[in-house]
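Regression test attached.
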Amino acid sequence: MHLQPSGRPVAEILEDVRQGERISAGDAHTLLEAGDLLELGLAAHQVRDRLNDPAVATYNIDRNINYTNVCVYKCRFCAFYRQPGDPEGYVLPFEEIGRKIEETLALNGTGILLQGGVHPDLPLSFYEDLLGYIRENYPAVHLHAFSPPEVRFVAKKERMSFFEVIARLKKAGLQSIPGGGAELLSDGVRKEVLAYTKVSADEWIEVMRQAHANGLRTSATMMYGMGEPLTARIEHLQRVRELQDETGGFTAFISWTFQHDHTDMEDVPETYAHEYLKTLAVSRLFLDNIQHLQTSWVTQGKKIGQLGLMFGADDMGSIMIEENVVSAAGTSYRMSQDEMEHLIAAAGLSPRQRTNLYERLVTREETLELAERYRCALTPQNQDLASPLPIVG
Ligand code: SF4
């Protein structure tokens, strides 16, 4: 994998992008290192408009439910986990998870993201029971759950393959897998920030490959700004693009900067908006095979999040009814659906609420109808009410 700068002039690389040609990892490095922010943003915006409706920006309404904060790992960048035996450790009762889903549906939500902690004592049957409980009581809600570190841990614990574990979870109701735990898919960095032991770069890729082989879509994520060399970001992007070439299973790419408060890495200098927007733009230029890119208002704040829509992103992500991991590291932003729509409209774009896999895009007028269908389908008997709405541009 050649990760060093290609040495080609920035203008030549951007011209290739405009002609619809794929750029190399070395080209991406050159752009990150030597590209002008506004030139990169303009080129990334053109690519965004080529792959998505230029007049529209999307968002979704879902909720992050951290079913446990107990974790066997001690990632240095994490302020969320509690070690096994810690009095502040918890595993949420299913009924409490049910209450959170009810609240999400009441706010026009369509899905939930379930993620731990990697709890050492929870067997595969716990995850199956949890999915089964939700599927039975809320059959329409989209279940986006269990990132690669959780899948890997359960596979090791149960002595099963990644494919087998994912097949069992899918049978229990899992519909897609979040890209959490990727951080930077570069083992040199992973060893330093202690994310290597929970899942190596190869293992993260392999879990996603097996999810795609199971017919599940997944997202890809990247967290950077931990003092790593630029080659680590390039390696990450290259690995994601390669797997997407192979499987086509990634729906979206979501990147954000490391938030350091209350972590073991508080001395790492903060990554500011210039670098965030530049990395977003280069990601858009390099990942020519992933349709959707999210802007991270959760870590960058609403204003830079909005600006991300001009630097390659076509989606604002979730309104975040609940978020525990980034807020544990000292960054906490909240947004209502009204504010989300205002933010997008103020950027000159039409807001559309989307479902988790981007299958349905609805206007605000149609939001209530969408939500009603998800709320109505509270029992298996009326599940057919959650039939698809027409897709609008
Ligand atoms: S990032 Fe995830 S795996 Fe790492 S310590 Fe935190 S909860 Fe555990």
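Expected vs. actual: identical. The longest helix spans residues 230-247.
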